[in-house]
Design brief:
InterPro entries: Flag_bb_rod_N, Flagellar_basal_body_rod_CS, Flg_bb/hook_C_dom, FlgK, FlgK_helical. One of its GO terms (molecular function) is structural molecule activity. Belongs to the flagella basal body rod proteins family. Residues 7-36 form the Flagellar basal body rod protein N-terminal domain. This protein has 569 residues and is an alpha+beta fold. The protein has 11 helices and 18 strands. Strand 6 (231-235) and strand 7 form a beta hairpin. Helix 2 (71-101) packs parallel to helix 5 and helix 6 runs antiparallel to helix 10. The protein is rod-shaped and about 155 Å long.
């Protein structure tokens, strides 16, 4: 080997160490750069020089500069991030609903229930000389209770709408990230020239990896790197990005239940995205399962309160009987059977008693009104028109149906009053004939406006069969009374079940979120131990490279002295 060959060896070494030091410096400079993946220099022996029968090495060259990354661990971390993101969103949804319900505070729904039924019970303790104040208080507590139920439903719907808006925003983010990853795929493929084992386009790959992590936080995706260096990203078996190609996703809005429901589809094919994790999945589950599930339970509770309370209430009367009364609810077709006429609460087969009183003589004439919804008598099922005809045939009473499908009863003389009793069909509550609560559920529950104000408090139906307070006792007992419609549970039981289920599901969701968060942190630590920049390790590499560089410089000095000596001969 010649002295010039020795200089070539030293030159190769100096160049390799300079590149190594530059990579170390770049790693140190990006130690705090989010998402930066540590780069490493891969050295290889320089091509040999053959002299005679000998193969003499020419030092070292840099083979490539690659990122120090475990792709399998990276995929695991992205999957864990998607699972944690979905769990966090659902956990937050449960916490928001718990705060909305406000249990264990002075303004929770259970407190409103207790005050309402307590106010009804207290009407029996009112003095005979002041029957209006206690009745008015009970009506006010009922109005407050109905208002609180509506408020909770409205705020829950606002929470649902917020999730719907966030889903729409996230879809735009997915499309933007897919576009950016597609562009990085093209740039990386061009930079690396697609040759296997070549240097990585480190900065470009780091930026693409950050975009990929952001995408994985939104949707669960399967990522595979192609030989060219581009990525293939699939969602539910359908590709979203394939190297230099991509597809867009969009929201398909269906409105089959009266509220807009959006779902993700591929824009070009309309095929639905089947997500199992990620922020969008968490938002969708929070909207459709957590919030809507709670609203369904709240609506069921409101329905039970409206119908069951009205069933008892409608059989009572106020301080005086009625001279005119119109149903709160309307039917779609007066000639349709009452259980198929579009009423929220369908009546059943049975009967009720209509009592007509003469205020001058005090004579009360009872008449039984039949509601046949089984067709057992051979006649068609009872319609609203049939019911109006039966009522109109009662002496002293006229009955008619207006254009809106509502039934009106009226006394034919000024000394005639009427009341109801012993309704086994529930038709009075279904039609809203002498009812307290109005509406069809939690979104529109209200109270009969004819009872509002202390001047109308005397109409509050607390009497039954002419006995003051008898209906009040029945109404107050309703809160804890087992109900057939609730399989033996009471209204309080139904409410407690709703609260308990929400609390239990919230606890489970919190535990799942905590567990997935801890798992993600563990994977993140493992990933950083491999791909993150460790200043101590970089310092050791820097010292090693420096010593090699110094030794090589000393080697060049010796070779130079030998050349000088040779020239001087």
């Amino acid at each position: 080997m010649s002295l010039f060959g020795s200089l070539q060896t030293a030159s190769n070494t100096l160049q390799a160490m300079q590149i190594g030091l530059q990579v170390v410096g770049n790693n140190i400079a990006n130690a705090n750069t989010e998402g930066f993946i540590r780069e490493q220099v891969n050295y290889a022996p320089a091509p040999v020089q053959r002299r005679g029968g000998l193969n003499i090495g020419l030092g070292v060259v840099v083979d490539s500069i690659t990122q120090k990354i475990d792709d399998f661990l990276g995929n695991q971390l992205r999957d864990a991030s998607a699972d944690r993101a979905a769990a966090d969103i659902q956990n937050e949804a449960y916490k928001d609903l718990e705060a909305l319900l406000g249990e264990l505070t002075n303004n929770d729904l259970s407190t409103g229930l207790t005050k309402f039924f307590g106010a009804i019970e207290n009407t029996n303790n009112a003095t005979a000389g002041d029957p209006y104040s206690s009745r008015n208080l009970a009506v006010l507590e009922g109005e407050r209770l109905a208002g609180e139920i509506r408020r909770i439903d409205q705020r829950a719907k606002a929470l649902r709408d917020n999730y719907d808006n966030e889903i729409a925003t996230s879809v735009g983010q997915v499309n933007q990230l897919a576009l950016e990853i597609q562009q990085f795929n093209i740039r990386i493929t061009q930079t690396e020239a697609g040759s296997v084992g070549s240097s990585d386009a480190g900065a470009l790959r780091t930026q693409r990896n950050n975009k990929l992590n952001a995408l994985a936080d939104l949707i669960d995706a399967t990522v595979v790197e192609q030989p060219s260096g581009g990525l293939s990203i699939a969602v539910g078996g359908e590709f979203l990005v394939f190297e230099g190609q991509r597809r867009e996703i969009s929201l398909e809005v269906a409105d089959g239940t009266g509220e807009a429901e959006s779902r993700l589809v591929f824009t070009d094919s309309g095929k639905r995205l089947d997500l199992a994790s990620g922020r969008i999945y968490g938002l969708t589950q929070s909207r459709d399962t957590v919030v809507d599930g709670f609203r369904d339970q709240l609506d069921g509770f409101a329905k039970s309160l409206i119908n069951e309370f009205n069933k008892v209430y409608s059989q009572g009367q106020g301080l005086v009987g009625f001279d005119t009364l119109t149903t709160q609810e309307a039917v779609l077709d007066p000639n349709a059977a009452l259980d198929a006429a579009g009423l929220t609460f369908s009546p059943t087969n049975g009967e009720f008693r209509l009592d007509v009183a003469n205020t001058n003589t005090g004579v009360i004439t009872p008449t039984w009104i039949t509601i046949d919804l089984l067709g057992t008598s051979g006649d068609p099922k009872t319609t609203l028109a049939d019911l109006a005809e039966q009522l109109d045939n009662v002496t002293g009473i006229s009955a008619s149906i207006n254009v809106n499908g509502r039934l009106t009863l009226a006394s034919e003389t000024s000394d005639t009053r009427f009341t109801f009793a012993e309704d086994t069909s529930g038709v009075l509550a279904s039609l809203g004939l002498n009812s307290f609560f109005t509406g069809s559920g939690s979104s529109n529950i209200g109270t009969n406006r004819e009872l509002s104000g202390i001047a109308n408090a005397g109409k509050f139906a607390l009497s039954r069969d002419g006995v003051e307070g008898r209906n009040a006792i029945a109404l107050a007992a309703l809160a804890d009374q087992p109900l057939a419609s609730l399989d033996g549970a009471s209204i309080y039981d139904q409410y407690d079940q709703m609260v308990n289920e929400l609390s239990q599901r919230s606890t489970v969701a919190g535990s799942i979120a905590d567990g997935l968060g801890a798992f993600e942190s563990t994977l993140e630590s493992e990933f950083q131990s491999i791909s993150g920049v460790n200043i101590d390790e970089e310092a050791i590499d820097m010292i090693s490279l420096q010593r090699i560089y110094q030794a090589t410089a000393r080697y060049i000095s010796v070779v130079q002295a030998m050349l000088d000596a040779l020239v001087a001969i």
